[in-house]
Write a structure and sequence with these properties.
FAD/NAD(P)-binding domain, 19 strands, globular, 35% helix, eight-stranded mixed β-sheet, Polyamine Oxidase, Chain A, domain 2
Protein backbone atom coordinates (compact mmCIF):
# COMPACT_ATOMS: atom_id res chain seq x y z
CA UNK A 1 0.00 0.00 0.00
CA UNK A 2 1.42 3.38 -0.99
CA UNK A 3 1.73 6.37 1.29
CA UNK A 4 -1.18 8.78 0.96
CA UNK A 5 -3.17 6.26 -1.06
CA UNK A 6 -6.95 6.41 -1.02
CA UNK A 7 -9.44 3.59 -0.55
CA UNK A 8 -13.16 3.52 -1.08
CA UNK A 9 -14.87 1.24 1.43
CA UNK A 10 -18.49 0.37 1.96
CA UNK A 11 -17.97 0.15 5.73
CA UNK A 12 -15.01 1.25 7.85
CA UNK A 13 -14.89 -0.21 11.38
CA UNK A 14 -12.68 1.46 13.99
CA UNK A 15 -11.60 -1.15 16.53
CA UNK A 16 -11.77 -4.95 16.39
CA UNK A 17 -12.93 -5.70 19.92
CA UNK A 18 -16.16 -7.68 20.53
CA UNK A 19 -18.39 -4.92 19.13
CA UNK A 20 -16.32 -4.25 16.02
CA UNK A 21 -15.87 -7.96 15.30
CA UNK A 22 -19.57 -8.70 15.72
CA UNK A 23 -20.29 -5.92 13.23
CA UNK A 24 -17.77 -7.33 10.74
CA UNK A 25 -19.07 -10.86 11.24
CA UNK A 26 -22.68 -9.84 10.63
CA UNK A 27 -21.70 -7.75 7.58
CA UNK A 28 -19.82 -10.72 6.13
CA UNK A 29 -22.98 -12.84 6.25
CA UNK A 30 -24.60 -10.31 3.92
CA UNK A 31 -21.45 -10.16 1.71
CA UNK A 32 -20.89 -6.52 2.63
CA UNK A 33 -17.32 -5.30 2.12
CA UNK A 34 -15.58 -3.71 5.07
CA UNK A 35 -12.22 -2.64 6.42
CA UNK A 36 -11.66 -3.06 10.17
CA UNK A 37 -8.65 -1.34 11.70
CA UNK A 38 -7.24 -2.26 15.11
CA UNK A 39 -4.46 -0.57 17.13
CA UNK A 40 -3.34 -3.87 18.68
CA UNK A 41 -1.78 -6.82 16.89
CA UNK A 42 -4.78 -9.07 17.56
CA UNK A 43 -8.57 -8.93 17.73
CA UNK A 44 -10.67 -9.05 20.89
CA UNK A 45 -9.97 -5.73 22.59
CA UNK A 46 -10.41 -5.93 26.37
CA UNK A 47 -11.85 -9.43 25.91
CA UNK A 48 -8.78 -10.89 24.22
CA UNK A 49 -6.51 -13.62 25.54
CA UNK A 50 -2.83 -12.91 26.23
CA UNK A 51 -0.11 -15.50 25.62
CA UNK A 52 2.94 -15.75 27.87
CA UNK A 53 5.03 -18.71 26.75
CA UNK A 54 2.96 -21.85 27.40
CA UNK A 55 0.49 -19.91 29.55
CA UNK A 56 -2.64 -17.99 28.58
CA UNK A 57 -4.88 -15.53 30.38
CA UNK A 58 -7.70 -13.17 29.55
CA UNK A 59 -7.40 -9.53 30.60
CA UNK A 60 -9.34 -10.15 33.79
CA UNK A 61 -12.09 -12.76 34.28
CA UNK A 62 -14.35 -13.17 31.26
CA UNK A 63 -17.26 -15.53 31.03
CA UNK A 64 -20.11 -15.57 28.59
CA UNK A 65 -23.65 -14.92 29.72
CA UNK A 66 -26.59 -13.21 28.13
CA UNK A 67 -30.37 -13.03 28.11
CA UNK A 68 -30.13 -13.14 24.30
CA UNK A 69 -30.57 -16.70 23.06
CA UNK A 70 -29.35 -15.70 19.58
CA UNK A 71 -25.90 -14.87 20.97
CA UNK A 72 -25.60 -18.23 22.74
CA UNK A 73 -26.49 -20.09 19.58
CA UNK A 74 -24.19 -17.94 17.43
CA UNK A 75 -21.14 -18.59 19.60
CA UNK A 76 -22.02 -22.25 20.13
CA UNK A 77 -22.09 -22.64 16.34
CA UNK A 78 -18.73 -20.90 16.08
CA UNK A 79 -16.92 -22.93 18.74
CA UNK A 80 -18.67 -26.31 18.81
CA UNK A 81 -16.86 -28.69 21.16
CA UNK A 82 -14.53 -25.90 22.30
CA UNK A 83 -17.45 -24.24 24.14
CA UNK A 84 -17.18 -25.39 27.77
CA UNK A 85 -19.73 -25.27 30.58
CA UNK A 86 -17.87 -24.34 33.77
CA UNK A 87 -19.06 -24.68 37.37
CA UNK A 88 -18.60 -21.25 38.86
CA UNK A 89 -17.02 -20.39 42.21
CA UNK A 90 -16.39 -16.75 43.09
CA UNK A 91 -15.69 -15.29 46.52
CA UNK A 92 -14.89 -12.06 48.33
CA UNK A 93 -11.87 -12.03 50.64
CA UNK A 94 -12.77 -9.69 53.50
CA UNK A 95 -10.79 -9.21 56.71
CA UNK A 96 -9.02 -12.53 56.27
CA UNK A 97 -12.16 -14.57 55.48
CA UNK A 98 -13.71 -15.86 52.26
CA UNK A 99 -17.36 -15.00 51.54
CA UNK A 100 -19.25 -16.73 48.76
CA UNK A 101 -20.47 -14.46 45.97
CA UNK A 102 -23.36 -14.10 45.30
CA UNK A 103 -24.16 -14.18 49.00
CA UNK A 104 -25.04 -17.48 50.67
CA UNK A 105 -26.82 -16.77 53.97
CA UNK A 106 -25.29 -19.58 56.05
CA UNK A 107 -21.80 -18.83 54.77
CA UNK A 108 -22.17 -15.10 55.44
CA UNK A 109 -23.55 -15.54 58.97
CA UNK A 110 -20.77 -17.95 59.85
CA UNK A 111 -18.12 -15.50 58.66
CA UNK A 112 -19.45 -12.28 60.20
CA UNK A 113 -20.39 -13.78 63.59
CA UNK A 114 -23.66 -13.38 65.44
CA UNK A 115 -23.02 -9.83 66.75
CA UNK A 116 -22.28 -8.42 63.34
CA UNK A 117 -25.12 -10.44 61.82
CA UNK A 118 -27.59 -8.87 64.26
CA UNK A 119 -26.21 -5.43 63.38
CA UNK A 120 -26.63 -6.12 59.63
CA UNK A 121 -30.22 -7.30 60.09
CA UNK A 122 -31.04 -4.38 62.41
CA UNK A 123 -29.61 -1.80 59.97
CA UNK A 124 -31.38 -3.43 57.04
CA UNK A 125 -34.76 -3.50 58.82
CA UNK A 126 -34.38 0.06 60.11
CA UNK A 127 -33.43 1.30 56.67
CA UNK A 128 -36.44 -0.38 55.03
CA UNK A 129 -38.74 1.34 57.55
CA UNK A 130 -37.06 4.68 56.80
CA UNK A 131 -37.56 4.11 53.09
CA UNK A 132 -41.32 3.77 53.58
CA UNK A 133 -41.59 7.25 55.07
CA UNK A 134 -38.83 8.98 53.13
CA UNK A 135 -39.62 10.63 49.80
CA UNK A 136 -35.97 11.40 49.02
CA UNK A 137 -34.53 9.98 45.84
CA UNK A 138 -31.05 8.56 45.95
CA UNK A 139 -28.56 10.86 44.24
CA UNK A 140 -25.41 8.73 44.31
CA UNK A 141 -24.20 5.14 44.68
CA UNK A 142 -23.63 5.40 48.43
CA UNK A 143 -27.19 6.54 49.12
CA UNK A 144 -28.57 3.85 46.82
CA UNK A 145 -26.56 1.02 48.37
CA UNK A 146 -27.43 2.06 51.93
CA UNK A 147 -31.12 2.48 51.03
CA UNK A 148 -31.22 -1.02 49.52
CA UNK A 149 -29.09 -2.93 52.04
CA UNK A 150 -28.59 -0.87 55.19
CA UNK A 151 -25.31 0.72 56.22
CA UNK A 152 -23.62 -2.36 57.73
CA UNK A 153 -24.13 -4.68 54.77
CA UNK A 154 -23.29 -1.92 52.26
CA UNK A 155 -20.01 -1.29 54.05
CA UNK A 156 -19.13 -5.00 54.21
CA UNK A 157 -18.08 -5.14 50.57
CA UNK A 158 -20.10 -2.89 48.22
CA UNK A 159 -18.90 0.57 49.14
CA UNK A 160 -15.22 -0.20 49.67
CA UNK A 161 -14.89 -2.38 46.58
CA UNK A 162 -16.71 0.19 44.44
CA UNK A 163 -14.37 2.94 45.65
CA UNK A 164 -11.41 0.68 44.90
CA UNK A 165 -12.55 0.12 41.31
CA UNK A 166 -13.29 3.75 40.54
CA UNK A 167 -10.86 5.67 42.73
CA UNK A 168 -13.77 7.90 43.77
CA UNK A 169 -15.86 8.23 46.91
CA UNK A 170 -19.20 6.43 46.49
CA UNK A 171 -20.90 9.77 47.05
CA UNK A 172 -19.31 10.88 43.74
CA UNK A 173 -20.55 7.86 41.74
CA UNK A 174 -23.82 7.84 39.81
CA UNK A 175 -26.77 5.67 40.83
CA UNK A 176 -26.59 4.24 37.28
CA UNK A 177 -23.78 2.03 38.51
CA UNK A 178 -26.05 0.63 41.23
CA UNK A 179 -28.84 -0.01 38.72
CA UNK A 180 -26.53 -2.14 36.59
CA UNK A 181 -24.64 -3.96 39.32
CA UNK A 182 -26.94 -4.40 42.34
CA UNK A 183 -30.51 -3.82 41.16
CA UNK A 184 -32.60 -6.90 41.81
CA UNK A 185 -30.39 -8.04 44.69
CA UNK A 186 -31.73 -7.89 48.23
CA UNK A 187 -31.11 -9.31 51.67
CA UNK A 188 -34.70 -10.58 51.67
CA UNK A 189 -33.99 -12.44 48.44
CA UNK A 190 -30.98 -14.11 50.04
CA UNK A 191 -33.11 -15.21 53.01
CA UNK A 192 -35.82 -16.60 50.70
CA UNK A 193 -33.22 -18.50 48.71
CA UNK A 194 -31.84 -20.07 51.89
CA UNK A 195 -35.29 -21.08 53.18
CA UNK A 196 -36.81 -22.25 49.91
CA UNK A 197 -33.69 -23.64 48.29
CA UNK A 198 -34.47 -25.95 45.39
CA UNK A 199 -32.46 -27.84 42.81
CA UNK A 200 -35.30 -27.71 40.31
CA UNK A 201 -35.34 -25.47 37.28
CA UNK A 202 -32.51 -24.14 35.12
CA UNK A 203 -29.18 -23.20 36.61
CA UNK A 204 -28.35 -19.51 36.39
CA UNK A 205 -24.97 -18.02 35.55
CA UNK A 206 -24.43 -17.75 39.31
CA UNK A 207 -23.85 -21.53 39.21
CA UNK A 208 -22.38 -22.07 35.74
CA UNK A 209 -21.13 -20.16 32.74
CA UNK A 210 -19.78 -20.84 29.26
CA UNK A 211 -16.13 -20.39 28.33
CA UNK A 212 -13.96 -21.12 25.26
CA UNK A 213 -11.49 -23.87 26.12
CA UNK A 214 -8.48 -21.92 24.80
CA UNK A 215 -9.39 -18.51 26.18
CA UNK A 216 -11.83 -15.80 25.25
CA UNK A 217 -9.90 -14.82 22.12
CA UNK A 218 -11.04 -18.07 20.52
CA UNK A 219 -14.47 -16.48 19.99
CA UNK A 220 -13.03 -13.45 18.25
CA UNK A 221 -10.30 -15.15 16.25
CA UNK A 222 -12.95 -17.52 14.88
CA UNK A 223 -15.19 -14.58 14.02
CA UNK A 224 -12.30 -12.82 12.28
CA UNK A 225 -11.38 -15.89 10.22
CA UNK A 226 -14.94 -16.36 9.02
CA UNK A 227 -15.55 -12.65 8.37
CA UNK A 228 -12.33 -12.26 6.36
CA UNK A 229 -14.08 -13.74 3.32
CA UNK A 230 -15.91 -10.42 2.83
CA UNK A 231 -13.59 -7.88 4.40
CA UNK A 232 -10.13 -6.96 5.56
CA UNK A 233 -8.58 -6.60 9.02
CA UNK A 234 -5.64 -4.26 9.43
CA UNK A 235 -3.63 -4.29 12.67
CA UNK A 236 -1.35 -1.76 14.41
CA UNK A 237 -3.52 0.86 12.74
CA UNK A 238 -5.44 3.83 14.10
CA UNK A 239 -7.27 6.94 12.84
CA UNK A 240 -5.48 10.29 12.72
CA UNK A 241 -8.33 12.45 11.44
CA UNK A 242 -12.05 12.03 10.70
CA UNK A 243 -13.30 14.51 8.14
CA UNK A 244 -16.99 15.42 7.88
CA UNK A 245 -19.16 17.60 5.72
CA UNK A 246 -22.91 18.21 5.53
CA UNK A 247 -23.58 15.96 8.57
CA UNK A 248 -21.78 13.00 7.04
CA UNK A 249 -18.39 11.40 7.61
CA UNK A 250 -16.55 11.78 4.30
CA UNK A 251 -12.96 10.68 4.93
CA UNK A 252 -10.82 9.00 7.58
CA UNK A 253 -7.02 9.38 7.62
CA UNK A 254 -5.40 6.22 9.01
CA UNK A 255 -1.89 5.50 10.26
CA UNK A 256 -0.61 1.98 9.60
CA UNK A 257 2.99 1.33 10.74
CA UNK A 258 5.03 3.87 8.73
CA UNK A 259 2.28 4.53 6.18
CA UNK A 260 -0.60 6.95 6.10
CA UNK A 261 -3.61 6.50 3.86
CA UNK A 262 -7.14 7.77 3.38
CA UNK A 263 -10.45 5.90 3.41
CA UNK A 264 -13.70 7.30 2.06
CA UNK A 265 -16.33 5.16 3.80
CA UNK A 266 -20.00 5.00 3.01
CA UNK A 267 -20.57 4.04 6.67
CA UNK A 268 -18.33 4.50 9.72
CA UNK A 269 -18.70 2.22 12.75
CA UNK A 270 -16.65 3.34 15.76
CA UNK A 271 -15.77 1.42 18.90
CA UNK A 272 -12.76 3.59 19.77
CA UNK A 273 -13.11 5.72 22.94
CA UNK A 274 -15.74 8.38 22.33
CA UNK A 275 -13.39 10.96 23.85
CA UNK A 276 -10.80 10.18 21.16
CA UNK A 277 -13.37 10.15 18.38
CA UNK A 278 -14.69 13.62 19.20
CA UNK A 279 -11.17 15.08 19.13
CA UNK A 280 -10.35 13.53 15.74
CA UNK A 281 -13.23 15.27 13.98
CA UNK A 282 -12.39 17.85 11.35
CA UNK A 283 -13.82 20.47 11.50
CA UNK A 284 -13.77 20.27 15.29
CA UNK A 285 -16.94 20.61 17.38
CA UNK A 286 -17.45 23.85 19.28
CA UNK A 287 -15.60 24.46 22.55
CA UNK A 288 -18.64 23.53 24.67
CA UNK A 289 -18.74 20.01 23.19
CA UNK A 290 -14.97 19.60 23.53
CA UNK A 291 -15.10 20.68 27.20
CA UNK A 292 -17.91 18.21 27.92
CA UNK A 293 -15.92 15.39 26.30
CA UNK A 294 -12.83 16.37 28.27
CA UNK A 295 -14.77 15.82 31.51
CA UNK A 296 -15.60 12.22 30.59
CA UNK A 297 -13.12 9.92 32.31
CA UNK A 298 -11.90 6.37 31.80
CA UNK A 299 -10.45 4.19 34.56
CA UNK A 300 -7.27 2.33 33.59
CA UNK A 301 -6.31 -1.26 34.35
CA UNK A 302 -3.06 -3.13 34.99
CA UNK A 303 -2.67 -6.90 34.87
CA UNK A 304 0.23 -8.54 36.68
CA UNK A 305 0.60 -12.12 35.46
CA UNK A 306 2.46 -14.60 37.65
CA UNK A 307 3.73 -18.02 36.59
CA UNK A 308 3.81 -20.38 39.56
CA UNK A 309 6.34 -23.21 39.62
CA UNK A 310 5.64 -26.56 41.31
CA UNK A 311 2.05 -25.57 41.99
CA UNK A 312 -0.88 -27.42 40.43
CA UNK A 313 -3.54 -25.03 41.65
CA UNK A 314 -3.91 -22.25 44.23
CA UNK A 315 -7.63 -21.65 44.63
CA UNK A 316 -10.80 -23.50 43.72
CA UNK A 317 -12.22 -20.16 42.49
CA UNK A 318 -12.13 -18.73 39.00
CA UNK A 319 -11.61 -15.31 40.59
CA UNK A 320 -11.69 -13.60 43.99
CA UNK A 321 -12.64 -10.02 44.88
CA UNK A 322 -10.50 -8.15 47.42
CA UNK A 323 -12.34 -5.02 48.63
CA UNK A 324 -10.01 -4.13 51.54
CA UNK A 325 -8.27 -0.88 50.66
CA UNK A 326 -4.88 -1.90 52.04
CA UNK A 327 -4.62 -4.68 49.44
CA UNK A 328 -3.28 -2.99 46.28
CA UNK A 329 -4.94 -5.32 43.76
CA UNK A 330 -8.71 -5.56 43.47
CA UNK A 331 -9.19 -8.99 41.90
CA UNK A 332 -7.17 -12.14 41.47
CA UNK A 333 -7.98 -14.86 38.96
CA UNK A 334 -6.59 -18.31 38.22
CA UNK A 335 -6.96 -18.95 34.44
CA UNK A 336 -6.59 -22.72 34.86
CA UNK A 337 -9.92 -22.78 36.73
CA UNK A 338 -11.65 -21.47 33.59
CA UNK A 339 -10.06 -24.12 31.37
CA UNK A 340 -7.28 -26.64 32.01
CA UNK A 341 -5.74 -25.63 28.68
CA UNK A 342 -4.79 -22.18 30.02
CA UNK A 343 -1.73 -23.61 31.81
CA UNK A 344 0.61 -26.58 31.24
CA UNK A 345 -0.21 -29.80 33.08
CA UNK A 346 0.65 -29.66 36.79
CA UNK A 347 1.40 -25.94 36.57
CA UNK A 348 -0.73 -22.87 37.17
CA UNK A 349 -0.71 -19.09 37.01
CA UNK A 350 -2.40 -16.10 38.58
CA UNK A 351 -3.52 -12.72 37.28
CA UNK A 352 -3.62 -9.77 39.69
CA UNK A 353 -5.75 -6.80 38.62
CA UNK A 354 -4.97 -3.23 39.60
CA UNK A 355 -7.47 -0.41 39.00
CA UNK A 356 -5.82 2.97 38.50
CA UNK A 357 -5.78 6.29 36.68
CA UNK A 358 -3.55 6.81 33.70
CA UNK A 359 -0.31 8.41 34.89
CA UNK A 360 -0.82 7.72 38.62
CA UNK A 361 1.77 5.83 40.68
CA UNK A 362 0.27 2.41 39.97
CA UNK A 363 0.16 3.08 36.22
CA UNK A 364 3.86 3.94 36.21
CA UNK A 365 4.90 1.07 38.50
CA UNK A 366 7.18 -1.67 37.19
CA UNK A 367 6.19 -5.32 37.46
CA UNK A 368 8.85 -5.71 40.13
CA UNK A 369 7.32 -2.92 42.22
CA UNK A 370 3.80 -4.29 41.84
CA UNK A 371 4.95 -7.74 42.91
CA UNK A 372 6.78 -6.26 45.89
CA UNK A 373 3.70 -4.44 47.23
CA UNK A 374 1.50 -7.45 46.53
CA UNK A 375 3.64 -10.17 48.13
CA UNK A 376 2.57 -9.69 51.78
CA UNK A 377 -1.08 -10.07 50.73
CA UNK A 378 -0.38 -12.98 48.38
CA UNK A 379 1.31 -14.85 51.22
CA UNK A 380 -1.84 -14.47 53.33
CA UNK A 381 -3.69 -16.10 50.45
CA UNK A 382 -1.25 -19.01 50.43
CA UNK A 383 0.98 -17.87 47.55
CA UNK A 384 4.59 -18.05 48.69
CA UNK A 385 7.36 -16.10 47.00
CA UNK A 386 9.39 -19.23 46.33
CA UNK A 387 6.69 -20.53 43.95
CA UNK A 388 6.61 -17.37 41.80
CA UNK A 389 8.54 -17.67 38.55
CA UNK A 390 8.33 -15.26 35.64
CA UNK A 391 6.10 -12.19 35.83
CA UNK A 392 4.54 -10.11 33.06
CA UNK A 393 2.77 -6.75 33.02
CA UNK A 394 -0.06 -5.64 30.73
CA UNK A 395 -1.70 -2.18 30.62
CA UNK A 396 -5.05 -0.97 29.32
CA UNK A 397 -5.62 2.79 29.26
CA UNK A 398 -9.34 2.85 28.40
CA UNK A 399 -10.68 0.03 30.56
CA UNK A 400 -13.82 1.37 32.24
CA UNK A 401 -15.97 4.43 31.44
CA UNK A 402 -16.40 6.23 34.75
CA UNK A 403 -19.96 6.80 35.95
CA UNK A 404 -19.20 9.79 38.12
CA UNK A 405 -22.00 11.93 39.46
CA UNK A 406 -21.91 14.29 36.45
CA UNK A 407 -21.16 11.87 33.63
CA UNK A 408 -24.66 12.00 32.11
CA UNK A 409 -24.70 15.78 31.78
CA UNK A 410 -21.31 15.65 30.07
CA UNK A 411 -22.11 12.66 27.88
CA UNK A 412 -25.49 13.90 26.64
CA UNK A 413 -24.23 16.89 24.58
CA UNK A 414 -21.39 14.81 23.12
CA UNK A 415 -23.77 12.09 21.94
CA UNK A 416 -26.29 14.62 20.70
CA UNK A 417 -23.58 16.23 18.59
CA UNK A 418 -22.41 12.90 17.16
CA UNK A 419 -25.95 11.80 16.40
CA UNK A 420 -26.11 14.38 13.59
CA UNK A 421 -23.82 12.24 11.42
CA UNK A 422 -26.15 9.97 9.48
CA UNK A 423 -23.45 7.43 8.56
CA UNK A 424 -21.82 7.12 12.01
CA UNK A 425 -22.54 4.31 14.48
CA UNK A 426 -21.18 4.24 18.06
CA UNK A 427 -20.71 0.77 19.53
CA UNK A 428 -18.91 -1.04 22.34
CA UNK A 429 -17.96 -0.07 25.87
CA UNK A 430 -15.57 2.75 24.98
CA UNK A 431 -17.34 3.82 21.80
CA UNK A 432 -20.71 4.28 23.48
CA UNK A 433 -19.28 5.18 26.92
CA UNK A 434 -21.32 2.49 28.59
CA UNK A 435 -19.98 -0.02 31.13
CA UNK A 436 -21.45 -3.11 29.54
CA UNK A 437 -20.44 -6.73 29.18
CA UNK A 438 -19.19 -8.52 26.09
CA UNK A 439 -22.67 -9.79 25.20
CA UNK A 440 -23.93 -6.20 25.03
CA UNK A 441 -20.93 -5.22 22.91
CA UNK A 442 -21.73 -8.08 20.52
CA UNK A 443 -25.36 -6.98 20.31
CA UNK A 444 -24.31 -3.40 19.54
CA UNK A 445 -22.05 -4.56 16.72
CA UNK A 446 -24.75 -6.78 15.27
CA UNK A 447 -27.32 -3.96 15.40
CA UNK A 448 -24.93 -1.55 13.68
CA UNK A 449 -24.40 -4.10 10.91
CA UNK A 450 -28.14 -4.75 10.58
CA UNK A 451 -28.75 -1.00 10.38
CA UNK A 452 -26.39 -0.86 7.39
CA UNK A 453 -27.73 -4.03 5.77
CA UNK A 454 -31.43 -3.16 6.27
CA UNK A 455 -31.02 0.58 5.54
CA UNK A 456 -32.74 1.27 8.85
CA UNK A 457 -31.19 2.75 11.99
CA UNK A 458 -31.88 0.46 14.92
CA UNK A 459 -31.69 1.82 18.46
CA UNK A 460 -28.20 0.78 19.52
CA UNK A 461 -28.41 3.08 22.54
CA UNK A 462 -30.92 0.78 24.21
CA UNK A 463 -28.55 -2.21 24.30
CA UNK A 464 -27.37 -2.64 27.89
CA UNK A 465 -29.40 0.37 29.01
CA UNK A 466 -32.26 -1.59 30.54
CA UNK A 467 -31.10 -0.65 34.06
CA UNK A 468 -31.39 -4.16 35.39
CA UNK A 469 -28.89 -6.28 37.22
CA UNK A 470 -26.33 -7.52 34.66
CA UNK A 471 -25.66 -10.86 36.37
CA UNK A 472 -28.79 -12.44 34.97
CA UNK A 473 -29.03 -15.06 32.30
CA UNK A 474 -29.43 -18.77 31.85
CA UNK A 475 -27.30 -21.65 30.74
CA UNK A 476 -28.97 -24.56 29.05
Amino acid sequence: MQNNGQLNKEVLILGAGPAGLACAFELSKAKKQFLAIEKNEAVGGLSRTLQFGDYQTDIGPHRFFSQNKYLYEMIEDLLGEHWLKVNRLTRFFIDGKFFLYPIDLKDALKNVGWKRAIKIIFDYTTQKIKNIFSKKSQKNFEQKAVADFGRSLAELNMLNYTEKIWGLACSEISTDWADQRIKGLSLLGVVKKAIFKSNKGPKTLVDQFYYPDQGNSLIYETMKNQASSSGEFMFTSYPLKIVHSNEKITEVIIKNSDKTFSVTPEQLVSSIPITELINLLSPQPNSEILRAAQKLKFRSHLSLFLILNNKQTVFPDQWIYLPNQEIPFGRIMEPKNFSAKMSPTNKTSLLLEFFCWENDNIWHSTKEKLLEISLPHLEKLGVEKQFIGETFLHKEKYAYPVYDINYQENLAPVKKYLSRFENLFLIGRAGSFRYNNQDHALEMGILAARSIIDHKKYDIEQVGAEQTYFEKGYVK
